[in-house]
Write a structure and sequence with these properties.
By secondary structure, this protein is mainly alpha-helical. The chain is built from 15 helices and 5 strands. It has 2 domains: 80 residues, Tyrosine recombinase, N-terminal domain (DNA polymerase, domain 1, Orthogonal Bundle); 214 residues, hpI Integrase, Chain A (Orthogonal Bundle), CATH 1.10.443. Helices cover 53% and strands 7% of the residues.
């Protein structure tokens, strides 16, 4: 790969490149299509898989085909009127409710962290260093994931040298690029120290017990207690989180890596954050994306029977370390 190609490749996220390659392979090899394609060819392809794949999967494959044609200098066949009509027809004949991960409620976050804290203390008493590290890592993972509203790939890419934490004050993470940072300008994310469920102290406890000074924040701990040099794979977060929640006595199958992000958005909405403040804090650029993570039922929290009303609206302000 020459120098120019290396920079061009770096301009696209690896996950996007991988999914686009798979989509092109599906069109050419699995279906037997020819490139460059025509609008009619795209319509026949969509018709073949309309009742087999979700509309989101089909749209992702159209995006891959569009990108291939544009980069190769051909007209984009996915933008023809018949293709747009086909997508509309598929939505009509195959309506499907979008599946979303359940939001991690604050009560359940507290239950999981309390269990992890107890297990870490018991492991320390036994001299079980491996499980001390695992539990301290998991505490930091769920608290940072929740209070910062990070995606799974963002948690996996956090670096110690790009993180500044001060006990009792706050923590700042820097990510050179995020999904919402299309220009790769880099973004800093700040979270204050809290009196309980504190992500700042959880981070400090984790890197202290692990002895990490540089490199990925979150790493695997093997069966002998050895810490990996590389960061965890974002794809491994779902089974990791489900294991944590199951051991803590929660319905683990409800949750995915998006549950912490949805949980924070739901909590913030119920506690009086307006949509602009939430978008700024989490880093959303698109209001539709932000609304998709919020649970509308949380809007009734203050009116529900037994609700504590104003006691919960200022929870984070009361928990911030002054």
């Amino acid at each position: 790969m020459n120098k120019a190609d290396r920079y061009l490749q770096a301009g696209t996220r690896e996950n996007t490149r991988r999914s686009y390659r798979a989509a092109i392979e599906h069109f050419e090899v699995t279906w037997g299509g020819f490139l460059p394609a025509t609008g009619d060819g795209i319509v026949r392809y969509l018709a073949e898989y309309a009742d087999k794949h979700t509309i989101n999967t089909l749209k992702q494959r159209l995006a891959a085909l569009a990108q291939w044609h544009i980069t190769q200098g051909f007209p984009d066949p996915t933008k023809t009127p018949t293709v747009k009509q086909m997508i509309k027809g598929i939505r009509t004949l195959h309506p499907a409710q979008e599946k979303q991960a359940a939001p991690l409620l604050l009560l359940h976050l507290e239950q999981a962290v309390s269990w992890l804290e107890r297990e870490a203390d018991l492991a320390a008493e036994r001299g079980d260093y491996r499980n001390v590290m695992r539990h301290r890592r998991d505490i930091a993972l769920v608290l940072i994931g929740f209070w910062r509203g990070f995606r799974g790939d963002e948690l996996a890419r956090l670096q110690v040298e790009h993180t500044q934490a001060e006990s009792g004050i706050g923590i700042t993470f820097y990510l050179p690029h995020t999904k919402g940072d299309r220009q790769h300008l880099g973004t800093s994310f700040h979270t204050p120290a809290l009196k309980k469920l504190c992500p700042v102290q959880a981070y400090i406890n984790w890197i202290t017990v692990a002895g990490i000074a540089r490199g990925p924040v979150f790493r695997k701990v093997d069966r002998w207690g050895n810490l990996a040099e590389d960061g965890i794979n974002s794809g491994s977060l779902i089974p990791l989180l489900r294991r944590i929640f199951k051991q803590a006595g929660l319905s683990a199958d409800l949750y995915s890596s998006h549950s912490m992000r949805r949980g924070f958005a739901t909590w913030a909405s119920a506690n009086g954050w307006d949509i602009k403040a939430l978008m700024t804090y989490v880093g959303w650029k698109d209001m539709k994306s932000a609304l998709g993570y919020m649970d509308a039922s949380a809007s009734f929290a203050g009116l529900a029977v037994g609700a504590r009303g104003s006691d919960t609206r200022t929870w984070i302000e009361h928990q911030c370390v002054k």
